[in-house]
Amino acid sequence: MSYTLTVVVPCYNERANVAPMVAALNNALTGIDWEVVFVDDDSPDGTSTAVRALAREDVRVRCIRRVGRRGLSSAVIEGALSSSADYVAVIDGDMQHDETRLPLMLQAVQIGADMAVGSRHVEGGDSAGLSSPLRVKLSETGIRVAQALTHTSINDPMSGFFLLRRDLFEQLAGRLTGQGFKILLDLILASPRRLTIAEIPYKFRPRQAGESKLDVLVLAQFAGLLMDKALRGTVPLRFISFALVGAFGVLVNILVLQAARSLGIGFGTAQTIGTVVAMIANFELNNQLTYRAQKLKGPRAWRGLVLFLAVCSLGAYANIGIAKALYAENGHGLLAGAAGAAVGVVWNYAVSATLVWRV
Ligand code: GDD
Ligand code: MN
């Protein structure tokens, strides 16, 4: 016997919302054979413990606890892939989405839509729960970009509240980037054919407990996801992020060099200081952004930093060597410099990915 519907709930530090969520699903889903799987990234507030306590009382409650990993989209993917039900729904664990819409969403897919999306931007929908005017603006801009990219007119492509057949999810799973926050967008973009989407209006509720995990880094990851699609997956997303961080490092290097020189420090020493500061800044940025899902912490971060400095120093050495050799050969300074830098960044990327972050 298997369930009709698996409700996947990504959660991070949502302990106080777990029991209300299960109670709300219980009310909303009477008459439907459902289970719920909470996918928790080892939250320090003990979300998993709260889920397990309920799971012991109720077989319909399951817990997936991921250790050493972070990420809303990847959590959703793992939850959905753990299902054997006919349909899979995804809903936030903080009670901001309206679970009472789930039966309607299920019905829409049962009568033929590929996917049902809870939408704040159709008649009857509402995004009052968005906490600030800035978020409203960001959300509007994101929607327009996403619509252009997906060639769809879906009104709420940024929604994290949706339902689809499990077999469709499984077909698309191999093509997902799994990065960042926007799993719905990821799914739509992964589909080789245009999906028929039923938009079901709902009112986005304000958060009652806990806090939002959306921050600048998550937005940067979203920009990366869009860029990845624009490049049609020819360049790995991590490499783009790594290269952008590297470009930022060049800026840091130049600024520190100038500052040090203005303090009367000699060029050689000033450049060394600039380079080391830039490398440390790059390590931190890559750890927070490029490798957010495998972020190194505590002693492992210190070890990672030392390795990263060693890897990048070798990269710089190769960069300079290659540029010098090419320059000697054809006298084209800019080309020689660019070729050296390209070899340097590919080296740094490839080696630090395997040695430092071990992906
Ligand atoms: N497992 C896991 N890992 N869950 C996470 C992570 C993570 O790294 N980050 C966030 N979550 C969970 C949260 O605990 C919450 O249940 C849900 O994902 C949404 O996160 P929030 O931090 O509450 O996001 P939000 O309210 O700013 O954004 C929501 O609204 C957007 C529309 O404005 C999300 O639903 C987005 O998907 C949605 O697009
Ligand atoms: Mn939220």
UniProtKB/TrEMBL annotation:
N-terminal signal peptide: none
Compartments, as annotated in UniProt: Membrane
What InterPro entries is this protein classified in? DPM1-like, Glyco_trans_2-like, GtrA_DPMS_TM, Nucleotide-diphossugar_trans
Keywords recorded for this protein, A-Z: Glycosyltransferase, Membrane, Transferase, Transmembrane, Transmembrane helix
Provide one Gene Ontology biological process annotation: glycolipid biosynthetic process
List each copy of the GtrA/DPMS transmembrane domain by range: 242-357
Q: What is the top EC class of this enzyme, as a single word? A: transferase
Q: Where are the transmembrane segments?
A: 235-257, 263-283, 304-327, 333-357
Please state the protein's primary subcellular location.
Answer: membrane
Query: EC number(s) on record?
Result: 2.4.1.83
Q: How does it sit in the membrane?
A: Multi-pass membrane protein
Database matches in CDD domains:
DPM1_like (cd06442)
- MF terms (GO), sorted A to Z: dolichyl-phosphate beta-D-mannosyltransferase activity
Q: Which GO terms describe its cellular component?
A: membrane
Quote the Pfam families the UniProt record gives. Glycos_transf_2, GtrA_DPMS_TM
Glycosyltransferase 2-like domain location: 6-172
To which protein family does this belong?
Belongs to the glycosyltransferase 2 family.
Know the name of this protein? Dolichol-phosphate mannosyltransferase
